[in-house]
Amino acid sequence: MTDWNDEVDVLVAGSGGGLAGAYTAAREGLSVAVVEATEQFGGTTAYSGGGGMWFPCNPVLRRAGVDDSFEDALTYFRAVVGDRSPADLQETYVRGGARVIEYLESDDDFAFQMFPWPDYFGAAPKARTDGKRHIVPAPLPAAALGELATSVRGPLGTERLGEPQPEYLIGGRALVGRFLLALTKYPDVSLHLNSPLVELVTEAGRVVGAIVERDGERTAIRARKGVLLAAGGFEGNDALRQRFGVPGTARDTMGPWGNQGRAHEAGMAVGAATDLMDQAWWSPGMIHPDGRAAFALWFTGGIFVDRDGQRFVNESAPYDRLGRAIIERLDAGSMSLPYWMIYDDSAGPVPPVQASNVPMVDHEDYVRAGLRYSAATLPELAERIGVPAGALVETVNRFNDFADRGVDEDFGRGDEAYDRAFSEGASPLVPIRKGPFHAAAFGLSDLGTKGGLRTDTAARVLDESGAPIPGLYAAGNTMAAVSGTVYPGGGNPIGASVLFSHLAALDMVGR
Ligand SMILES: Cc1cc2nc3c(=O)[nH]c(=O)nc-3n(C[C@H](O)[C@H](O)[C@H](O)COP(=O)(O)OP(=O)(O)OC[C@H]3O[C@@H](n4cnc5c(N)ncnc54)[C@H](O)[C@@H]3O)c2cc1C
Predict the structure, then answer these.
(1) Which end of the chain has fewer CB atoms < 10 Å from its terminal CB, N or C?
(2) Which residues form the FAD-dependent oxidoreductase 2 FAD-binding domain (predicted)?
(3) 466 alpha carbon to ligand 1 midpoint, in Å?
């Protein structure tokens, strides 16, 4: 028998979307302990500048008069995800988000805003090309959180570059901050930093608690109702990435350092079935002088070329689709890293990347690090970056011709709504003509892995036979993603983490 050091109804491992589970359990009258592996709350969720959630037909959208339906949203989701995740899980996700927002909005600590963000497969049936399935949390003044404010992870500029803490929490930080604020109002909630869950404790096939390391000591916490693993992905663990065949590296992931897959391992050790373990939320990564490729989006110009000086993708496509195109090329051996963004001098030597997530530092630092080159002519630029000059000139000429005609015959750049989201509907094809010409180095980044423990629609973890493991729940990037091998729309990762954490807590309440 275990010697318990602590006892609660619900134990939550991870403080990103998992806070939705902690909050729900507390609000429904259960005692809760949140254990967070690192020195700050929030995980990758707190890195998100948007904190967007893809929750069709939710009350925020309904109030704004959006004429969507769950059926349409489900048609879209099913069309793009296919059978790579269970149909009932997909339906739960698509229909469930609206209810969770209703639940949160009935507490004054929460507020959300519509933030149109086109679905990522604009040509799929019932895609919402006006982006009205996406909401973000309202900003929160840091002062509202008092001392807790410095315990919220991020933003990336503060963490990686030492920029000052902003006075407002926005995006994912606002979401995390709002959950923390709400949680402090419940007496039976304890929040623990530097406390990784390392092992699950079972009795007669049921998960009854967990071992958590605190200050290097093993602490046994009994969880009467259950344990929720919402500990993110294993993107920060190169050994696990290799074991499961996840392209890319821990160096180039956006996940915070604590996302090492220990909760995945704890789940597998008690018999949890897994799925999608080679999958991540991908993106192109701008390589910064610290040597790390970081998730970048919102390109207002430029083209990507491979080592043959050829374009290989619609550069304005959603980042996960870009990432998958890069992986395909790498797998086929027709590309090596870095590849290059080629752009002209219309906006100066800094690449036309409007959202680098990790703020760009001084241009000269990139030049010194061999990550940016400039030249008066394209052939000279080609020589500097080691691609065939004739091919690069031909590629740019062909692209300029497409730009002049407003049609990308090779990769369809501009064909879908998302491609035009950052140019106010105008063509994203911007000719490359004004010298000097520039090249910026890019790699492969990811927003985290998305393979994990298989769950049912109540977020109960399943064993290999498909039966729930009593007392064990998973959500977010610790669960096998409801979105399978695609990224249907901005707001899926955080949405799935918040919703399935919430549903896990409700299930525990009911038991
Ligand atoms: C710049 C950026 C912008 C993004 N924008 C969006 C967006 O707008 N919308 C969207 O949906 N997605 C977005 N994403 C992706 C999204 O942020 C993540 O996929 C999502 O937040 C993951 O949530 P999670 O709860 O699964 O994990 P996380 O938020 O990563 O939280 C996991 C937490 O668990 C902790 N942990 C790990 N192991 C243990 C353990 N053993 N015990 C205890 N704690 C542990 C970690 O330290 C971490 O704090 C963005 C990502 C980035 C990088």
Answers:
(1) N
(2) 9-493
(3) 26
